[in-house]
From TrEMBL:
The lineage of its organism: Eukaryota, Sar, Stramenopiles, Ochrophyta, Bacillariophyta. It comes from the Eukaryota. Residues 1-44 are annotated as: Disordered. This is RING-type domain-containing protein. Belongs to the sel-1 family. PROSITE patterns: ZF_RING_2.
Length: 273
């Protein structure tokens, strides 16, 4: 029979395969409800994490489609800057920090875990996603994902608030808790998360508070969110948004989209990067 390894070694062996449990209370308190005025007056600029770390431009929504975040540094790089780096011959390194891109799930997971251990908000949110979807060889584990997103939100991840909002509101893998979901979306929207802003408008629409729904979608449309602009158009057709609001949303959306364009990004789109 194999000897029992000393405690420290056993812990280290555990750490190689099982990420350490985070010290969270059993039932973390949901965020406090946002003050209605603060909710509408904040978050008109997008979250800082939505910019490309190389060209400093905001990334089009959905940001996951138009950019990547390498696990080495967890810095967002847009498809245009990825293409430019590729064209300069930087094929297997992160365009931002020049670390070699990990090959294989285990190497990628180890890099993420290292950053999670150091209290990196974005890496903790990312690991939550991997558990939620059962990626990188992990077994799908929604409670673990929620635990990680809760920790990431505490550490300042706006995306983690959005993820928590979504799962609690719709009850995806967890018992439905709409008020808790809404509060998380409010926290994300206040910090400029466009999808959370869209959700909040949908919630108001379901509750037949059309005026508030339009206010939310105006904010996200002006940040360049196309679905929100289309919703304002529908509301205008239904008589719930004024012609002036629709015109303002169109102008604001167009300007935001223009500001996100660059020759590199256009080329990346043409090449399907
Ligand atoms: Zn860029
Ligand atoms: Zn990097």
């Amino acid at each position: 029979m194999a000897a029992t390894p000393p405690r420290a070694i056993a812990a280290a062996m555990d750490r190689r395969t099982v990420p350490p449990k985070l010290t969270l209370t059993e039932r973390p308190e949901p965020p406090a409800p946002a003050h209605p005025r603060r909710l509408m007056e904040s978050g008109h600029d997008r979250a800082q994490g939505d910019t490309c770390t190389i060209c400093y431009l905001y990334v089009e929504s959905p940001v996951g489609k138009h950019s990547k975040m390498n696990v080495c540094c967890m810095k967002r790089v847009c498809n245009g800057c990825f293409l430019a780096a590729h064209q300069r011959g930087l094929l297997d390194r992160c365009p931002f920090c020049r670390t070699a891109i990990p090959t294989g799930d285990a190497a990628e997971l180890a890099m993420i875990q290292k950053r999670v251990d150091r209290g990196d908000a974005e890496a903790t949110q990312r690991l939550g996603n991997q558990y939620y979807h059962g990626e990188l060889g992990l077994v799908k584990d929604v409670p673990r994902a929620i635990e990680l997103w809760t920790r990431a939100a505490e550490l300042g991840s706006v995306d983690a608030h959005n993820d928590l909002g979504f799962v609690y509101y719709y009850g995806h893998g967890v018992e439905v808790d709409k008020p808790r979901g809404i509060r998380h979306c409010q926290q994300a929207a206040i910090k400029g998360h466009v999808e959370s802003r869209l959700y909040l408008g949908l919630v108001d629409y379901d509750n037949e508070d059309y005026k508030s729904a339009v206010q939310h979608w105006m904010i996200s449309a002006m940040m360049g969110h196309e679905d929100s602009l289309n919703l304002i158009k529908e509301m205008f057709k239904e008589g719930q948004a004024s012609k002036a609001q629709y015109a303002e949303a169109l102008r604001g959306h167009r300007d935001a989209v223009e500001e996100m364009k660059s020759p590199q990004r256009e080329e990346a789109k043409r090449l399907g990067v």
